[in-house]
Design goal:
Helices cover 36% and strands 14% of the residues. With 421 residues, the protein is α/β, with parallel strands linked by helices. It starts with a helix and ends in a 5-residue tail after the last helix.
Length: 421
C-alpha cells in the first residue's frame, strides 16, 4: 500500500502482508486477527480484534489477500461516510462523497471490497463512484466477525469494478456458518455473471423514480432502454405502500443500534475517559467524548423507541410492517423478475449538503426497502446520457436470485463498454 493512499483517507489500516494473490480490502467494520478495527469511530480508535470474520477467513483460504481496511462512516450507519472519525472520502478533484470502499475500487487499489450493508451505505458508495455492489439475501453470508449495529438487516456484500469479480467472491464467502445464528441453512452456492437479460420482466417503481433528480431519472431511463434492447420487458408500477417502509426501517434500526452500541461504555469495550470520579462518570464521559453527533442522535431515538411508553406504538408496529412488506414484495416477485428504483434522490452529495439536511434518514428511503425485508439488491453504475458522472441504478430481486442481478449488471457493463467485439 502506498503512503499516499493513507493520506487520501481511503484506507485506515494496512495489513502489511507480502503474500501474492487477488487483493481485496475490508470495510473497517469487519474483523481480522491483530488488525486495527475502528468502525470509523473514536470509540474504537485502538481496538485490535483477536479473531477473523468467517467471510474473510474463507477468502484467505481461497488465496485472496487482504490489502487493508477502508474508511467508513461511524459504525457504518451514516449516509455515505460523512461521519468518519478520520474524515470523509471524496471523488478525486471533487467534494462529492463516494466512501472509502468505492474510492478503493474506482482507483484500482484492490479488485474488491467486502462491505456490511445495513442502511444502504455501500450501495450509495458504489453508485457515486461508478462501481458495482451486491447485497445478497439476508443470511446468505455469515455475519460472524462484523461489528454489529443493525443485526436484523446487516449483510456482508461485495463491491467491485464488475459483476464477474463480485460473483466469484460471493461464491467463496456464501454458505452456512455455525458461528452465526442468522445464517441460512444453505450449502455452498456457485454464482455466475452471464451477460443476458433476454426474457426478464422488469418492474419499475415509478413513485420512487419520480422523487429523484433529473440526472438520476435520465440515467434510469438509459438503463431501462438497454434492458429493453436486450430482450427484457419493462413495466412501470406504482407501489403507494412504500411511504412507510423507511419509517419502519429507521424505527427498527435505531432500536438495534441503541442496543448494540450500549456495549461501548468505557468499561467493557471502547474508549475510556480520563476524567471520572465514579462508575457513572466513566460511562457518561466516555460515550460523550467518543461517539459522534449522528451516533448519539440514533442512540437517543432508539432509546425512545424502546421505552415502555413507545414500544407498542413504534417498535412493535414496525415489526408488523416488516412482515407486511416482505409479503407485498413477494407478491410482486411472482409477477416480475426484478424491481428497479434509484439508489438515492440525487447523483452526488457533499458533506455540507448532508449535514445541513433536515433529515438524512429520509434520504435512505430508496435503500430501506431491501434493508427492511432482506431481499437481495444491487447497485449498478450507469450514466446520464452525454455525462461522465456515474449514477447508480438499484435493482431488487427475490430471495436467492442473485444470479439475475449479476446477469443484469454484466449485460449493462458489457453494453456500456461497447458491446461484444
Amino acid at each position: 500500500m502506498k503512503t499516499s493512499e493513507f493520506q487520501k483517507g481511503i484506507f485506515i489500516t494496512e495489513c502489511g502482508t507480502n503474500a501474492t494473490g487477488k487483493k481485496i480490502a475490508l470495510d473497517d467494520t469487519i474483523l481480522t486477527t491483530d488488525v486495527l478495527a475502528t468502525a470509523g469511530s473514536k470509540m474504537l480508535h485502538n481496538f485490535v480484534p483477536p479473531f477473523t470474520a468467517t467471510a474473510v477467513a474463507r477468502l484467505q483460504d481461497a488465496g485472496y489477500v487482504v490489502e487493508g481496511k477502508t474508511n467508513v462512516g461511524e459504525f457504518g450507519i451514516d449516509f455515505i461516510g460523512e461521519t468518519s472519525h478520520f474524515g470523509a472520502v471524496t471523488l478525486p478533484g471533487s467534494d462529492a462523497l463516494c466512501g472509502g470502499a468505492g474510492a478503493a475500487v474506482t482507483e484500482e487499489l484492490v479488485s474488491a471490497v467486502l462491505c456490511p450493508d445495513s442502511n444502504g451505505y455501500p450501495r450509495r458508495s458504489a453508485a457515486f463512484s461508478g462501481s458495482f455492489f451486491i447485497k445478497p439475501t439476508y443470511g446468505l453470508v455469515s455475519r460472524f466477525g462484523v461489528i454489529s449495529t443493525v443485526a436484523s438487516s446487516e449483510q456482508i456484500g461485495v463491491m467491485s469494478a464488475n459483476a464477474k469479480d463480485a460473483a466469484e467472491i460471493l461464491s467463496v464467502i456464501a454458505g452456512m456458518d455455525e458461528n452465526d445464528g442468522t445464517s441460512l441453512q444453505t450449502e455452498k452456492v456457485q454464482f455466475s455473471a452471464e451477460p443476458s437479460v433476454q426474457g426478464l420482466k422488469i418492474g419499475v417503481l415509478k413513485n420512487l423514480v419520480d422523487e429523484a433528480d433529473d440526472a438520476t431519472k435520465a440515467a434510469i431511463a438509459s438503463f431501462l432502454a438497454l434492458q429493453k434492447d436486450g430482450g427484457a420487458q419493462i413495466e412501470e408500477l406504482v407501489f403507494p405502500e412504500l411511504s412507510m417502509a423507511n419509517t419502519a426501517y429507521q424505527t427498527l434500526s435505531a432500536a438495534e443500534i441503541c442496543n448494540n452500541l450500549s456495549r461501548f461504555d468505557g468499561i467493557k469495550f471502547g474508549h475510556r475517559t480520563e476524567t471520572f470520579r465514579n462508575h457513572d462518570d466513566i460511562c457518561i464521559n466516555s460515550r460523550s467524548e467518543a461517539f459522534g453527533t449522528h451516533a448519539k442522535q440514533v442512540i437517543l431515538l432508539g432509546s425512545h423507541v424502546l421505552s415502555k411508553k413507545m414500544y407498542d406504538k413504534t417498535y412493535y408496529k414496525a415489526m408488523i410492517l416488516r412482515r407486511k412488506y416482505k409479503m407485498m414484495l413477494s407478491e410482486l416477485f411472482a409477477k416480475y423478475d426484478v424491481l428497479v428504483l434509484p439508489v438515492a434522490a440525487k447523483s452526488s452529495y457533499t458533506t455540507e449538503s448532508i449535514l445541513n439536511s433536515s433529515s438524512t434518514q429520509n434520504e435512505c428511503r430508496f435503500t430501506s426497502l431491501s434493508s427492511l425485508t432482506g431481499f437481495p439488491s444491487a447497485a449498478i453504475a450507469t450514466k446520464e446520457p452525454c455525462s461522465k458522472t456515474p449514477v447508480g441504478v438499484q435493482v431488487l430481486a427475490n430471495d436467492l436470485q442473485e444470479n439475475i442481478l449479476f446477469s443484469i449488471a454484466a449485460y449493462t457493463q458489457k453494453q456500456l463498454q461497447g458491446g461484444a467485439k
